[in-house]
Design brief:
This is Helix-turn-helix, AraC domain protein. Keywords: DNA-binding. By secondary structure, this protein is an alpha+beta fold. The protein is about 55% helix and about 10% strand. It folds into 2 domains: about 65-200, no CATH class; about 230-335, Orthogonal Bundle (Arc Repressor Mutant, subunit A), CATH 1.10.10.60. It has helices at about 10-20, 25-30, 30-40, 50-60, 65-75, 85-90, 95-105, 135-155, 175-180, 210-225, 230-240, 250-255, 260-270, 275-295, 300-305, 310-320, 325-335; strands spanning about 5, 45, 110-120, 120-130, 165, 185, 190-195. The chain has a 5-stranded mixed beta sheet with strand order 3-4-7-5-6, with helices on both faces. Helix 15 (about 300-305) packs across helix 16 (about 310-320). The longest helix is centred in the middle third of the chain and has 19 residues, at about 135-155. The relative contact order is 0.11.
Length: about 350
């Protein structure tokens, strides 16, 4: 399977921010990651997992639980990849979310995005779709902050979400988080999301540019087609977005990515895969990330994230796939060095 990639623009901005703020990348990163960082100066894309890992390794070594947010607030919105102008010139939040959801993989295949209606609110979720060395909380916090900034560009600088949810535990200090998001914060949630009011979706932006957005959408669509986004990439992102809570089936996944169920089965078979195997891979990523980030793991909570109704099912999954139970995996995580 083709490895997920990410545009190098975010990593190059992150490198500049780290050096400007006195973070010694040359002493923090190992030779392989330094080589990848050097490679980013000459390439448009690179392995998505490497970008996520570099964010997390640097934040951990620098003891900066707010590094992802601080970087995203410092960075130039125009200094990213293909979606930069969409973030700046979208007419409404509804349009912004539609275009971001459709074309986010052109910017990064490390995460997926999903907007879900929940009564009078809309949950704008982001989720990791790649395995990581140490979790991806810093990368997710950075991308959620960029989402926040893009919505404020439409609704005004004083806008704030109903609340912000983070799947990882709270850092030691949350004052900077509170100053940026200016809303209730929920840590240890089963998702990473911004909650906004439904009636904010169609409020027009004074700086929206309909002609430019129409042009950008045509260009992004042409780029998407030229890359020939494979159905399995779409399937991986859909599974990652819909795993928690259970009820995910091949039929539902096929409908969600816009292909026929039999066609998807044939595509999987040609790659020697099954839907069950794809689900297992997604659950392995979720479990690995969970034990990397959670200080006090809860088997019932993990079961929900894995899509199981009972904690016993999650326990069986851990023993079948990791040859260990929750307590052992938690102890392993605590005994391993952070970076």
């Amino acid at each position: 399977m083709v490895l997920p990639v990410a545009h190098t623009a975010s990593l190059l901005q992150f490198e500049r921010y780290a050096r400007l703020t006195g973070i010694e990348l040359d002493t923090i990163l190992d030779a392989d990651h330094l080589a990848l960082l050097a490679q980013a100066h000459d390439c448009e894309t690179m392995a998505a997992q490497a970008v996520v890992d570099i964010f997390q390794i640097v934040a951990t070594a620098a003891r900066r639980g707010d590094l992802g947010i601080a970087f995203a607030m410092w960075s130039s919105m125009r200094g990213y990849g293909p979606l930069s102008l969409v973030w700046e010139h979208s007419i409404t939040v509804e349009q912004l979310l539609r275009l971001s959801g459709r074309f986010l993989h052109l910017e990064t295949e490390a995460i997926g995005s999903l907007a879900v209606a929940e009564g009078d609110e809309i949950a704008v979720q982001q989720f990791l779709s790649v395995p990581t060395l140490m979790g991806g909380s810093q990368y997710l916090e950075a991308t959620l902050t960029l989402q926040l900034r893009s919505i404020r560009n439409i609704l005004g600088p004083q806008w704030h979400p109903v609340r912000a949810e983070f799947a990882h535990p709270a850092p030691d200090q949350t004052s900077f988080h509170r100053s940026v998001f200016r809303c209730p914060l929920v840590f240890g949630a089963d998702r990473n999301a911004l909650l906004l009011r439904r009636d904010e979706l169609r409020r027009p932006s004074p700086s929206g540019n309909p002609h430019l957005i129409a042009y950008l959408e045509r260009q992004l669509e042409a780029t998407r087609r030229s890359r020939s986004d494979h159905p399995l990439g779409s399937l991986e992102r859909f599974i990652a977005a819909n795993l928690a809570g259970g009820g995910l089936t091949l039929a539902r996944a096929a409908m969600g990515i816009g292909v026929g169920e039999r066609s998807l089965q044939r595509t999987l078979a040609r790659r020697g895969l099954t839907f069950s195997a794809m689900m297992t891979q997604a659950r392995q990523r979720v479990a690995t990330d969970y034990f990397t980030n959670q200080r006090k793991p809860n088997l019932g909570e993990l079961a929900h994230r894995l899509g199981y109704a009972e904690a016993s099912a999650a326990s069986r999954f851990l023993r079948e796939n990791f040859r260990a139970g929750a307590r052992t995996l938690s102890r392993r995580n605590r005994s391993e060095p952070a970076a």
